[in-house]
Design a protein that fits this description.
Helix content: 40-55%
CATH topology of one domain: Alpha-Beta Plaits
CATH architecture of one domain: 2-Layer Sandwich
Low-confidence stretches: none
CATH class of one domain: Alpha Beta
Number of strands: 6
Number of helices: 5
Radius of gyration: 26 Å
């Protein structure tokens, strides 16, 4: 691992791992890469605020150790059960699989897994989602076991989606091959019929 990669790794650890995209990047890792390799601004992590931007600047200049940061009494998502239409849009939006439910069925938040990223809130077409205080009034601390768990869940979801997409592509390719083989056989039979008809005409 070279020096820049070490700095990226440290900046990732200095970010809250909400994967909220408020920095306008896909995730915390993408933002960290942009800071180091594209000279992106260090103050774009809205949840982390001023303390996080100061820490990132420190990491960039001297690669210092990461100090714990926190969001006091962070909020989590909540679904108004009576209004949920089971559209699954919030499930797709959640970066860490903290929402469960089936299509046309009421969805539910896994409260001790939700990190309050807010990505699901604006996706709801019937405005049945809101932010509420987490049950235990806990603070979101990073780096911590909780933020590491959130990061792990995020990458597990990415891997699962990637595997699904790969399988779909394989199935699509197989269907294409089957169609090509079918077309080839049809053309072969047509050619044989044509030959046979010409022979009969000759006779």
């Amino acid at each position: 691992m070279n020096e820049k990669q070490k700095i990226v790794s440290n900046i990732i650890n200095a970010l809250p791992q909400l994967q909220c995209r408020k920095c306008e990047y896909q995730d915390c890792e993408s933002y960290a890469h942009a800071i180091v390799y594209d000279n992106e601004k260090v103050n774009k992590c809205e949840p982390g605020g001023k303390e996080t931007s100061i820490q990132i600047s420190s990491i960039k200049s001297s690669n210092k150790n990461i100090k714990a940061n926190r969001i006091n009494n962070y909020q989590i998502a909540n679904i108004k059960i009576d209004e949920c239409i089971g559209c699954t849009l919030c499930i797709k939006a959640c970066p860490i699989d903290a929402i469960i439910g089936a299509k046309n069925q009421c969805h539910f938040i896994i409260e001790d897994q939700c990190n309050g990223c807010e990505l699901c809130i604006n996706e709801c077409p019937v405005d049945c989602m809101e932010l509420i205080d987490n049950v235990n009034n806990d603070s979101w601390v990073w780096p911590s076991l909780e933020s590491e768990k959130s990061k792990k869940l995020y990458y597990q979801k990415l891997e699962r989606i990637n595997n699904i997409n790969e399988q779909r592509q394989i199935q699509k390719d197989n269907r294409t091959k089957e169609l090509l083989i079918k077309k080839y056989l049809e053309n072969a039979f047509d050619r044989e019929d044509l030959k046979h008809n010409k022979i009969k005409e000759y006779e």
